[in-house]
Amino acid sequence: MSIFPTKILLATDSSEEVEMAAKVAVELVQQTGSELHVIHVLALPLDTHDPSSFEPGWRRQLETRARSELKDEVDTIEASGGTVADTHLGVGRPDAEIVALAEEIGAGLIVMGSRGLGGIRRALMGSVSSAVVRHAHCPVMVVRGEAVIFPTKILLATDGSEDSELAARAAADLAKSSGSELHVVYVQPMLERHSRPMRSQSIFHPKWSRAWRKKVGANLRSWYRRCGRRAAR
Asked: What is Dmax (Cα atoms) for the chain?
């Protein structure tokens, strides 16, 4: 059963990265006949969640500005030919608000941009997109670099685990709906004792290599069938 058409939740924050994510979300809606929802989260400092910790009217001013930014983002989407089914203003921690709303409206896909923080900054500040990927109940598309133009090539990375099932179904559905090519790469996890180079010569034994390739081939064929269509490669 396909996940499309579905409700696609676009998370916005008025950044350049989100502009690209919005373009992708609009195209996905058009390609799959889905419904577009947009959320903008007003992220308040931790100590301002207590109403007594800030001046009267200050939070109301911030919410008014956030609603204005949300309206501007929706206007931009509609000016580009997109249709927004509903808008949502969240107040609090962005990742928690996005995940909660996606579950509340029954979203089948979350689309968001990534600021591409480096390792140190990500460790210090955290990453909203990373947190959403970890906690969302549905697939998450994080747009980085340039906006995706469909049809395109979609790479499904799988290790054969049950956790890969949803990724495979989403990738296959997206490929079918957008007329894109689906490529599959299967990664066979190595045993811990073989995880370091040259730790054991048995990994290079011809019999082990043939058995491994045979197993990988069987797994790939199985995943081709699970995807519901023949992968491009």
From this structure: 74
The CA distance from 77 to 100, in Å, is: 23
The answer to whether 179 and 150 have CB atoms below 8 angstroms apart is: yes
Tokens 């921690």 — which residue?
93
SS3 43: coil
Q: Which amino acid is at 10?
A: L
Both tokens of 134, joined, read 């970890």
Q: How many Å apart are CA 220 and CA 25, to the nearest integer? A: 30
On the 0-12 / 13-18 / 19+ scale of CB atoms within 10 A, 87 is middle
Please write the tens of the pLDDT for every residue from 22-81: 999 999 999 899 999 999 999 876 554 555 555 668 888 889 999 999 999 999 999 999
Q: Which domains does the chain have, with CATH numbers?
A: 1-149 (3.40.50.620), 151-233 (3.40.50.620)
